[in-house]
C-alpha cells in the first residue's frame, strides 16, 4: 500500500488508469503530481475535450489499456466538461467508467447537473490535496472492488480460478469460457448497471451484432447460478439498459 501522507491507497486502486482533462496546464500538472505522489502510476493529461475523446478512442482497440477513471474540469474553452462527459457516455465501453468533476464551478445547480450526467463525485476548487486523493480512491474502491477468485451469490458460489459454480444442493457445474468472461465483467461492476453494449464490447470486442448471443449466454448463466432461473435475484435485467449482478 502507498501512504505518503494521504492515507492508505490499495494497490488495485492505484493501478487504475486515469485521464485528467483540464485546460489549465499548471493546475493539471499539480493534480498529476499529487496523484503520482500518492502512488497512482497511470495518469494521462490532456487540455481539451477533443484531445480527451481522441485519447479515449486511441485506447479503444486495447480494452486492457482503457481508462478506468475520468477527472474532468467543467469550465474549458470549446467543449466544456458537462458536454465532454455526455460524449464519453455515448461510447459503449465508457458507459459505466467512473467520472469525477474537479472544478471551480460550484453552484448547487452545477453539482446537480454534473451528477445527473453520471458523474460519481464533484470536487470544488480550491481543494486539499489529501481530500482529492481520498475521494478519488473512494470512487475507484467503490467501482472496482478488489478482485477475488470467489464470488458469493444468493444460490451458489462461483470460483473464477477453476470456472466452477458450487450450488447450494452440493452439485458443481462448469462455466464455459464466454460465460466466465461475461460473469467476470459483471462481478467487477457488482451492484452497478452494465449496459448491453458495454458487455458486448468487453466480451466480443464490438457492440454490433452480439445482443442475441449475449442474451443466450445470460439465460444459460442463470440456469447455473440462480435457484430459480425464471425469477433471477443475482443476475437481474435492468429493462432498457442492461444487467446488474447482486452479490450475497
Description:
- With 248 residues, this protein is α/β, with parallel strands linked by helices.
- Helices cover 39% and strands 18% of the residues.
- A five-stranded parallel sheet has the order 2-1-3-4-5, sandwiched between helices. A four-stranded antiparallel sheet has the order 6-7-8-9, with no helix packed on it.
- Strand 1, helix 2 and strand 2 form a beta-alpha-beta unit.
- Helix 7 packs across helix 9.
- It is elongated, with a radius of gyration of 19 Å.
- The N terminus is likely disordered.
Net shape: elongated
- Helix vs. strand class: alpha/beta
Give average pLDDT, whole number: 86
- Identify low-pLDDT runs: 1-7
Q: Can you write the helix and strand succession as a string?
A: HEHEHEHEHEHEEEEHEHHEE
Cα radius of gyration in angstroms: 19 Å
Count of DSSP strands: 12
The number of helical segments is 9
State which percent range the strand residues make up: 15-25%
Strand order of the largest sheet: 2-1-3-4-5
Span of the ends, CA to CA: 28 Å
Q: Portion of residues in helices?
A: 25-40%
User: Strand count, sense and closure of the main sheet?
Assistant: 5 strands, parallel
What topology emerges from the helices and strands here?
Blueprint: H1 11-14, E1 18-21, H2 25-37, E2 43-46, H3 49-58, E3 69-72, H4 81-89, E4 99-103, H5 108-116, E5 121-124, H6 129-143, E6 150-152, E7 156-159, E8 164-167, E9 172-174, H7 177-188, E10 194-195, H8 196-204, H9 211-225, E11 235-238, E12 242-245
Parallel strand pairs: 1-2, 1-3, 3-4, 4-5
Antiparallel strand pairs: 6-7, 7-8, 8-9, 10-12, 11-12
Helix pairs in contact: 3-4, 7-9
Amino acid at each position: 500500500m502507498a501512504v505518503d501522507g494521504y492515507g492508505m491507497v490499495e494497490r488495485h486502486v492505484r493501478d487504475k488508469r486515469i485521464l485528467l482533462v483540464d485546460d489549465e496546464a499548471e493546475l493539471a500538472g499539480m493534480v498529476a503530481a499529487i496523484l503520482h505522489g500518492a502512488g497512482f502510476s497511470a495518469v494521462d493529461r490532456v487540455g481539451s475535450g477533443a484531445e480527451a475523446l481522441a485519447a479515449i478512442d486511441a485506447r479503444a482497440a486495447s480494452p486492457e489499456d482503457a481508462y478506468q477513471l475520468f477527472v474532468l474540469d467543467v469550465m474549458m474553452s470549446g467543449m466544456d466538461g458537462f458536454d465532454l462527459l455526455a460524449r464519453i457516455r455515448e461510447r459503449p465501453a465508457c458507459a459505466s467508467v467512473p467520472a469525477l468533476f474537479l472544478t471551480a464551478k460550484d453552484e448547487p445547480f452545477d453539482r446537480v447537473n454534473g451528477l445527473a450526467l453520471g458523474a460519481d463525485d464533484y470536487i470544488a476548487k480550491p481543494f486539499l490535496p489529501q481530500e482529492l486523493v481520498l475521494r478519488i480512491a473512494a470512487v475507484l474502491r467503490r467501482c472496482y472492488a478488489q478482485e477475488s477468485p470467489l464470488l458469493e451469490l444468493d444460490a451458489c458460489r462461483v470460483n473464477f480460478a477453476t470456472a466452477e459454480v458450487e450450488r447450494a444442493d452440493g452439485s458443481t457445474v462448469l462455466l464455459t469460457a464466454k460465460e466466465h468472461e461475461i460473469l467476470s465483467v459483471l462481478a467487477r461492476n457488482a451492484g452497478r448497471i452494465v449496459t448491453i453494449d458495454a458487455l458486448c464490447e468487453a466480451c466480443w470486442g464490438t457492440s454490433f451484432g452480439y445482443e442475441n448471443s449475449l442474451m443466450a449466454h445470460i439465460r444459460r448463466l442463470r440456469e447455473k447460478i440462480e435457484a430459480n432461473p425464471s425469477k433471477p435475484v443475482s443476475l437481474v435485467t435492468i429493462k432498457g439498459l442492461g444487467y446488474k449482478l447482486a452479490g450475497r
